[in-house]
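Chapter review: from sequence to fold.
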Amino acid sequence: MPPASATTKRTLSTAEERREALVEAAVRVFAERGFHATPTLDVAKAAGISQAYLFRLFPTKSELFVAAVDRAKDRILRTFDEAAATAGEEGALAAMGMAYEALVERDRDVLRLQLQSQVAAASDPAIRDAARRCFADLHDLVAQRSGASPEELKGFFAAGMLINAMAAVDAEGLDEPWAATLTLRDHDC
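The token string follows.
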């Protein structure tokens, strides 16, 4: 009988597959603890790679964090685009808003990473640029798909920020007047 190593075929990951796994792990780990409180070693472990390999793929911690922010942004863009496509221009803004609320509910990492990126943007220019690009790309997609006026866009993004804040403090689960006022839940349910 041949040795086990002779019959077991080992499949190696490509650099691109490892990069993808690393970015997905970075989204989860950075979302939980933020940029400053997360050692790159923790992200590498979560991705199943060495810290040295992490730095081969992303030479700086900031570059890795930016890749994670971009990944979260892509999820939001996809969510908005799909919602707008099913609603048509007339109902696109409302559909995107409801789709965002559902995304935040099912994928807390997207929400938490957005909040973490806003904190880190205050001290890191590369992250600040990524956060700005995120807002610009979201603005452009929402404006294009909805045909909304500048005032409607301001209202849409203000509501999104309120959704973020209320989800972050888990206001939806509270039976308090301020939570009822500031969340979008339906009280007749």
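Two observations follow directly from the output. The chain is about 75% helix and 0% strand. Residues 66-182 form a domain with the Tetracycline Repressor; domain 2 fold (CATH 1.10.357).
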